[in-house]
């Protein structure tokens, strides 16, 4: 009975927006899969409590972007690409821990069409999924950074900014 109730909570969801990158992108930052808020907005790190944009603005020495266009431009102007490891999966809401039946994203296309030299994961789950589904065929290692998710309360904004800045320099 519990399994039936749990199965009803799962939704099969497909990534609904494109990666952010161009031919000059040198760094790739990978999340796991877009949150409900990100899927609603059609862009990365859309939850207002996610600290990704504050961290990136600090790392890149920029003003914090507000619009999707400003966010995209900030990344591209600094050679940063953003995408997710999972293209589609079964998931309950935004719960990364519920992700199952993963279809990985085509990261190789992005790497071939850019100058990606380093790949970073935004959190341990994206690292784990990358290592399982993508690294064996792509052959590029990933460096895990602490998640900017509001669920990662162990890291203050200042601590995240310092760690991310050191890693991305």
Q: Strands across the major sheet, in which order?
A: 3-2-6-7
Helix content: 25-40%
Instruction: Name the assembly state.
Output: single chain
Average residue pLDDT: 93
The structural class is alpha/beta
Work out the radius of gyration. Answer: 16 Å
Strand content: 15-25%
Report the span from N to C terminus. 52 Å
Order of helices and strands: HEEHHHEEEHEHHEH
Q: Count helical runs.
A: 8
Reported for the largest beta sheet, the result is:
4 strands, parallel
Q: How many β-strand stretches?
A: 7
Q: What would the principal axes of the Cα set say about the shape?
A: globular
Low-confidence blocks of residues: none
Topology (elements, then pairings):
Elements: H1 2-9, E1 11-14, E2 27-31, H2 36-41, H3 52-59, H4 68-77, E3 80-84, E4 86-91, E5 100-104, H5 107-112, E6 118-122, H6 124-133, H7 135-138, E7 142-145, H8 157-168
Parallel strand pairs: 2-3, 2-6, 6-7
Antiparallel strand pairs: 1-4, 4-5
Helix pairs in contact: 3-8
